[in-house]
Amino acid sequence: xxxxxxxxxxxxxxxxxxxxxxRPRPLGVSLLKEAVKGGLVVYIVSxxxxxxxxxxxxxxxxxxxxxxxxxxxxxxxxxxLSEKNWKLMAYSRIIDKEGCIAEVHEDNPYVLSSxxxxxxETLVLHVYEGSERCEVLKGxxxxxxxxxx
Length: 149
Known about the structure:
Elements: E1 8-11, H1 26-37, E2 41-49, H2 53-62, E3 72-76, H3 83-98, E4 103-106, H4 109-115, E5 122-128, E6 132-138, H5 144-147
Parallel strand pairs: 1-2, 1-4, 2-3, 4-5
Antiparallel strand pairs: 5-6
Helix pairs in contact: 3-4
């Protein structure tokens, strides 16, 4: 990475910010709020289809997250594109636009494995086995709440 510090953080939606019934995941929501409050450039990349943008925005609003504080919400353009391939494309686009990604928060280890080659500084797996926690697979997280899980 260049000498300029990267300030781009990317969150998955389902499994990190909400469960599959759209109930908030406290750890993920706390991390997202920490990133926004800290002035980081925040993207949400989801395997949800783009016609679900209203659902995603409403869920974020219910969590008291202002979507205008996010750089972008990127949703999968077609069900013919697998979630893993979509996210690989989306992360590549973010890197092309921003120059880097400092940290990715994801609940799918296969997605994290597939994006490892993109040069992302920190990869964080969100694990829910009775309790919420982050497992840092690569790098050092910038978000305090994840360091202490």
